[in-house]
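Q: Okay, next protein. This is E3 ubiquitin/ISG15 ligase TRIM25-like from Hemibagrus guttatus. I've checked the sequence twice, so it should be correct. Can you predict the 3D structure?
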Amino acid sequence: MAEASISVAEDQFSCPVCLDLLKDPVTIPCGHSFCKVCINGCWDQEDQKGVYSCPQCKDTFTPRPVLRRNNMLAEVVEKLKKTEVQAASPAHCYAGPGDVECDFCTGRKHKAVKSCLMCLASFCETHLKPHYEVPGLKKHKLVEASGNLQEKICSEHDEVLKIYCRTDQSFICYLCMTDEHKSHDTVSVKTKRTEKESELKEEQMKFQQRIQEKQKKVQELKQTVNTIKLSAQTAVDDSERIFTELISSMEKKRSEVTELIRAQEKTELSRAERLLEQLEQEIADLQRRLTEMEQLSHTHDHIHFLQEI
């Protein structure tokens, strides 16, 4: 809403000559207001006729009216400028780095929205209005704002390059066709663009086809990668299971072997202990008999000796 009101205000307080907000505004007898420098410039060209006209309503005045500053209008314009600065985005209104500047803005340049191939100039939204309103300017060729308009003009004839020479593969103007490019194969730039657009579409289709083929290969490769990962994981899981089973089996076998060894050890120890006990008993018996024999050898009773032996 603020932008709409500012736009209306700009129309009401813009100079009909320069189309900018009024600077040092003056009001002439018919009631229309202009920048002082703009109206003076217009009337300076009419000094020889001695009749001075309003650039807007065409009313005439004789003699040349005395111009006085419209202080009330000047104050309103100043307030409008301040409101515009606060409400408008500088990035949208003014040209920044890399933007094409309006060739008709004074002071800080606004961003150009269109370029005219006939005027060889670029225009902001405000200064472009005459190209949409003035019958003569409506026929001009407007293009997207460009900073290299001179490249679209024939350096030899100062005409717009509207023709493409297939023979020399260069852009030419209509006067070039009557000179050095007279017998060459030429077409309009529009026709050449149509041809190039057709070629471009074919190239786009080829690239699209290649992209689809690449995307198909990508999907296949992704599927292969997933298969590899799945197979590898399956192999890892299988190996983990097999080795777990092997370890479990080995642990079981180890336990069984240990148990077998311990059982055999127990049997052998039991047998050895019994044999040891038997041998110790036999040794004790022999020791006892030896003692008896030793005692018998010392007896003086011959009959007892013979009876015991």
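A: Here is a summary of the prediction. The helical segments are 2-12, 36-44, 71-87, 90-93, 125-133, 135-138, 189-297, 302-308. The radius of gyration is 58 Å.
Q: Noted. On to the next one.
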